[in-house]
Write a structure and sequence with these properties.
Layout: H1 10-20, H2 34-58, H3 65-85, H4 94-114, H5 127-136, H6 139-158, H7 175-254, H8 262-288, E1 295-297, H9 298-306, E2 315-322, E3 335-337, H10 340-356, E4 360-367, E5 371-378, H11 385-388, H12 419-429, E6 433-438, E7 446-453, H13 454-457
Parallel strand pairs: 2-4
Antiparallel strand pairs: 1-3, 4-5, 5-7, 6-7
Helix pairs in contact: 1-7, 2-3, 3-4, 4-5, 4-6, 5-6, 5-7, 6-7, 7-8, 7-12, 10-12
């Protein structure tokens, strides 16, 4: 495959990132399913019913049984109505999901009002709707539900019916203890909301980034498949072209030599010959491409990668050498298969280095009996300390326009944080380890080190099929 075609794949990265970060729009696939809320509410109905019945009949504590069962029955009938009216796999719009979760908060507040308010140990269940919201709904909806939870819990701290307890030994909790429960609910809302939302967002970002990577790989496979299609076309078109050439020669032989169509027949014969030459070239490429064009020395591969970048005003140099002390039979330069993942990953890393370099980028390739290493160094400002530990995660970038969904004026995206992630993912799939660091002072700049086990990438010792 021509390495010059690989940078075009960055458009796929822009497309994937742009779709996922359209302003104010959450993809439908991330919406909360109605079935999820219905099942959680059935679980709540069952738990609330068993608890109320056990306290009233099992422990013999007095409580307003009728109103409690009525509040639980409302949730049960709501579930039945939703199950009959809507499809189970329906994904709710954010405002409807927020309303249903707000109902769950209010219904729990009613039950707690009837059974002791914040003195009831089940008041911690206020955390459940807020946690569900943090994992699926936008931040403003989660904040609104959190405020509602604080309002009803604050109300329950002062207004509620007595806690169901033995009348012979009534339980009276001090005000400071009730305040501690309210504080615990507040802290739980904050911690669970932030933690669950952070985990959910990281999961979504990783899913989007992997989708972009799969698009790149699919594009690579399509380009690779074109070689096979070209070879198949060469084989299939060979016979009809030979027939055309033969018929043209026969017509020329039968027509008068000075006829008006003689020049046209000569042109037809020459063009048919030219087509056969082109097809024979494609056939030869198919027969030998895997062993000749598909394999190249490490230094040649790096030279191909930097060729499209040498006109950007930054000097890019390459040095290749075996490590000192390498055994004589392993000092030969490794031969690398033209792996699209390796080519794209390295090209992206070199391109990034050239973008941030002041004057030069240097590539150092070295090897010994066990390892093959490529070090990419630039003389720029280096990696920022607040970014270097996150490199390799999706949507981490120091370029301007970090979440931009539209191109800049020159038509290029200014940095979505997917390029390094995709490059690292593709290289790691080939067996590489990718490390990042800054150059040691007083020099400035970034250093990216890519290392493979030699047996994983060196095809020099492998004989092509059919050879002795």
């Amino acid at each position: 495959m021509n390495i010059r075609s690989i940078p075009q794949l960055s458009a796929l990265t822009a497309f994937a990132a742009g779709r996922e970060h359209s302003a104010g729009v959450r993809p439908e696939a991330h919406r909360l399913r109605l079935q999820t809320l219905v099942r959680l509410r059935w679980l709540a109905v069952a738990g609330q019913t068993l608890t109320v019945m056990f306290v009233y009949f099992g422990l013999g504590f007095p409580l307003p049984l009728g109103p409690c069962l009525a509040a639980i029955a409302v949730s049960a009938w709501l579930n039945i109505f939703l199950a009959i009216r809507f499809r189970a796999n329906l994904r709710l719009r954010n405002r409807y999901a927020t309303l249903l979760l707000a109902y769950d908060i209010v219904q729990l507040a009613v039950l707690l009002y009837l059974t002791g308010g914040l003195q009831n140990p089940f008041s911690f269940l206020f955390l459940v709707p807020a946690t569900v919201s943090a994992s699926t709904l936008p931040l403003n909806k989660t904040v609104a539900l959190g405020i509602l939870t604080l309002l009803v819990s604050t109300t329950l701290a002062f207004f509620h019916l007595p806690l169901p307890w033995s009348q012979a030994d009534p339980l009276t909790l001090p005000v400071i203890y009730i305040g501690g429960i309210w504080t615990a609910i507040l802290c739980g809302l904050g911690f669970m909301g932030i933690y669950v939302r952070r985990i959910s967002e990281e999961s979504k970002r990783m899913s989007k980034a992997l989708t972009a990577t799969e698009m790149v790989l699919a594009r690579e496979q399509q380009l690779s498949a074109l070689d096979g299609l070209a070879a198949a076309a060469a084989h299939e078109l060979g016979t009809p072209l030979a027939t055309i050439a033969l018929v043209a020669k026969e017509l020329k032989r039968e027509l008068p030599e000075a006829g008006s169509h003689s020049d046209d027949l000569d042109l037809l014969i020459s063009q048919a010959r030219r087509c056969r030459e082109i097809l024979s070239t494609l056939t030869a490429f198919d027969d030998e491409g895997d062993h000749v064009f598909g394999r190249l020395k490490l230094g040649v591969m790096l030279s191909e990668l930097i060729e499209p970048l040498t006109s950007d005003g930054v000097q890019i140099s390459v040095s290749c050498a075996a490590e000192p002390g390498t055994e004589e039979d392993m000092r030969a330069e490794p031969i690398i298969l033209r792996n699209p993942g390796i080519l794209y990953g390295l090209e992206n890393l070199i391109d990034n280095a050239a973008d941030f370099a002041r004057q030069e980028v240097h590539l150092t390739a070295s090897w010994d009996a066990e390892w093959v290493t490529i070090v990419i160094e630039d003389d720029g400002t280096g990696f920022a300390l607040d970014v270097i530990d996150k490199l390799g995660e999706p949507y981490v970038t120091t370029r301007k326009g970090e979440w931009a969904a539209s191109p800049s004026e020159d038509g290029a995206h200014d940095g979505m944080g997917l390029g390094f992630f995709i490059a690292k993912t593709l290289l790691e799939r080939s067996g590489a380890h990718v490390g990042v660091a800054n150059r040691k002072r007083p020099r400035s700049g970034a250093v990216v080190t890519v290392t493979w086990q030699r047996k994983d990438v060196d095809a020099g010792s492998k004989k092509p099929a059919g050879t002795n």
